[in-house]
């Protein structure tokens, strides 16, 4: 795709800071560096988001993530944890429409990254939870 910034990074038309590369996957430092070492893992094949990701490309990407995460852990001995994040579509904060996984090293509770999950457990009855699960299950 000619107007995709990540495709341009893969083709070396735009410079990046590579971390890992093979024939299917490219990983490079996120320019924002939310925390030191913040890395993006992307398929070389242009796929817009998780909803367009085929099984083979998903296997290619997700099979490399543990290797890259372990390399990050070795590179940053003071890393206390790691968030793996994937945003899909604009409402979910996807800003580059080429599927990508963020690997965000965590060094302390005070680093510049927060995730907040609301607790809506009291809003749904057991029957509603069963109906929600069934609605998803019948579409798998």
Automatic annotation (TrEMBL):
<dbReference type="InterPro" id="IPR036265">
    <property type="entry name" value="HIT-like_sf"/>
</dbReference>
<feature type="active site" description="Tele-AMP-histidine intermediate">
    <location>
        <position position="100"/>
    </location>
</feature>
<dbReference type="GO" id="GO:0009117">
    <property type="term" value="P:nucleotide metabolic process"/>
</dbReference>
<feature type="short sequence motif" description="Histidine triad motif">
    <location>
        <begin position="98"/>
        <end position="102"/>
    </location>
</feature>
<dbReference type="InterPro" id="IPR019808">
    <property type="entry name" value="Histidine_triad_CS"/>
</dbReference>
<dbReference type="InterPro" id="IPR001310">
    <property type="entry name" value="Histidine_triad_HIT"/>
</dbReference>
<dbReference type="Pfam" id="PF01230">
    <property type="entry name" value="HIT"/>
</dbReference>
<dbReference type="GO" id="GO:0003824">
    <property type="term" value="F:catalytic activity"/>
</dbReference>
<protein>
    <submittedName>
        <fullName>HIT family protein</fullName>
    </submittedName>
</protein>
<dbReference type="InterPro" id="IPR039384">
    <property type="entry name" value="HINT"/>
</dbReference>
<dbReference type="InterPro" id="IPR011146">
    <property type="entry name" value="HIT-like"/>
</dbReference>
<feature type="domain" description="HIT">
    <location>
        <begin position="5"/>
        <end position="113"/>
    </location>
</feature>
